[in-house]
């Protein structure tokens, strides 16, 4: 049954479940932060995919991270079953009294049920109208208005049973002192002051990227003596190749590449030291917004209502749809080499960046 009433409970052990990509995990932090603020004495644990662990591993409000390794299935059925059973046993032994399941997978529902928590919150997804989904959750939050909400706001509606408003949503990104020290050493070696720009032009899928030539031209127009531009990317081969092409097209001597050299927490430590972050639809864009650093996001065929950088006036969105037609995001072949941001002109990006930089 879908519920809309508040519960009368003071939880001691809270379990939050989210099984998605890196950016999704950043947009889950408002839920974690709000629960910690409301129940400062409660322990909060999170279940997530192993590869997204760096996003939350330094979060001060989290006691424990349970992980699912998606490579388990490559080790054979029996070994995978052993891992799954160990995870369930660990969850059960944690004695949670509240589970907040933000995921939509059947697996997350089963883990929610197996936790034994007295309050098991989930979303009443249209695609999950089944007896089993209702059995796994004893409090289902309506999702009727989710199509009008940002992902942060969608996640925050799961806290309606506690009377926590989405208006208090505050994302965060954390890193260790060791990460900060490594970044400071790198900047010192490169003789970089605090007056620098980060440009992260790569993404998991190429269709989210701007053209290399336009990225290079933008860098050349923004970099000058006293201000360097730092290129960053993930260590994947195709991203490093894209960065190399951009470097070859640039003429400015004030360009530095740290592509593939930083973990995500280290990248966060770099971003928070920057004057401006520029990038496409990727996790670092959300990290910048969470860290409160001015962000210029170049977006294409994405659901803006869901995935724009969350925050205030420091976040500027330049949407390719304002310059020409875009395909429906749900219709895109993610393996395409087409770059749907091509309609965005360099002039507008540079102009907005200069306004943010007070040039």
Write up what this structure looks like.
This protein has 359 residues and is of the alpha/beta class. The protein has 14 helices and twelve strands. The chain has helices at residues 22-26, 29-38, 53-56, 77-93, 106-114, 131-136, 151-156, 177-189, 212-222, 237-249, 264-271, 283-291, 304-307, 346-357; strands at residues 13-17, 43-49, 64-68, 98-101, 119-123, 139-141, 196-200, 228-231, 255-257, 276-280, 295-299, 315-319. The strands form two sheets. Strands 3-2-1-4-5-6 form a six-stranded parallel β-sheet, sandwiched between helices. A six-stranded parallel β-sheet has the order 9-8-7-10-11-12, sandwiched between helices. Strand 2, helix 3 and strand 3 form a beta-alpha-beta unit. Helix 9 packs across helix 10 (237-249). The longest helix is centred in the first third of the chain and has 17 residues, at 77-93. It starts with 12 loop residues before the first strand and ends with a helix. The model has no long low-confidence stretch (mean pLDDT 95).
The separation of the N and C termini measures 56 Å
The rounded Rg comes to 21 Å
Q: What's the β-strand tally?
A: 12
Major sheet strand order: 3-2-1-4-5-6
Class computed from helices, strands and strand pairing: alpha/beta
Mean pLDDT: 95
How large is the count of helical segments?
Answer: 14
List keywords for this structure.
alpha/beta; 359 residues; 14 helices; single chain; 6-stranded parallel beta sheet
Give the topology.
Elements: E1 13-17, H1 22-26, H2 29-38, E2 43-49, H3 53-56, E3 64-68, H4 77-93, E4 98-101, H5 106-114, E5 119-123, H6 131-136, E6 139-141, H7 151-156, H8 177-189, E7 196-200, H9 212-222, E8 228-231, H10 237-249, E9 255-257, H11 264-271, E10 276-280, H12 283-291, E11 295-299, H13 304-307, E12 315-319, H14 346-357
Parallel strand pairs: 1-2, 1-4, 2-3, 4-5, 5-6, 7-8, 7-10, 8-9, 10-11, 11-12
Helix pairs in contact: 8-11, 9-10, 9-14, 11-12
């Amino acid at each position: 049954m879908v519920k809309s009433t508040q519960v009368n409970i003071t939880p001691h052990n809270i379990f939050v479940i989210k099984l998605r990509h890196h950016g999704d995990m950043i947009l889950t932090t408002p839920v974690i932060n709000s629960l910690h603020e409301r129940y400062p004495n409660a322990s909060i644990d999170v279940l997530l995919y192993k590869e997204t662990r760096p996003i939350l591993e330094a979060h001060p409000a989290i006691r424990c991270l349970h992980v699912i390794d998606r490579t388990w299935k490559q080790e054979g059925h029996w070994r995978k079953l052993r891992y799954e059973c160990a995870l369930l046993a660990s969850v059960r032994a944690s004695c949670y009294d509240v589970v907040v399941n933000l995921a939509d997978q059947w697996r997350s529902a089963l883990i929610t049920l197996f936790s034994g928590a007295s309050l098991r919150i989930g979303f009443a997804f249209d695609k999950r109208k089944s007896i089993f989904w209702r059995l796994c959750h004893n409090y289902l939050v309506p999702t009727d208005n989710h199509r009008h909400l940002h992902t942060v706001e969608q996640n925050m509606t799961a806290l309606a049973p506690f009377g926590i408003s989405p208006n208090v949503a505050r994302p965060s990104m954390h890193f260790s002192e060791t990460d900060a020290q490594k970044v400071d050493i790198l900047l010192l070696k490169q003789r970089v002051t605090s007056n620098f720009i980060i440009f992260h032009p790569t993404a998991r899928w190429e269709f989210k990227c701007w053209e290399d030539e336009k990225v290079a031209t933008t860098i050349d127009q923004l970099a000058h003596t006293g201000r360097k531009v730092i290129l960053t990317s993930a260590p994947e081969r195709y991203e490093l190749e894209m960065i190399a092409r951009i470097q070859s097209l640039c003429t400015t001597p004030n360009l530095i590449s740290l592509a593939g050299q930083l973990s995500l927490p280290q990248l966060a430590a770099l971003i928070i030291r920057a004057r401006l972050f520029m990038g496409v639809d990727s996790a670092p864009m959300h990290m910048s917004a969470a860290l409160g650093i001015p962000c210029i996001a170049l977006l294409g065929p994405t659901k803006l209502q869901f995935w724009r950088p969350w925050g205030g006036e420091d976040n500027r969105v330049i949407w390719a749809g304002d310059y020409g037609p875009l395909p429906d995001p749900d219709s895109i072949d993610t393996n395409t080499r087409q770059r749907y941001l091509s309609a965005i002109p360099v002039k507008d990006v540079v102009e907005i960046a200069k306004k943010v930089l007070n040039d």
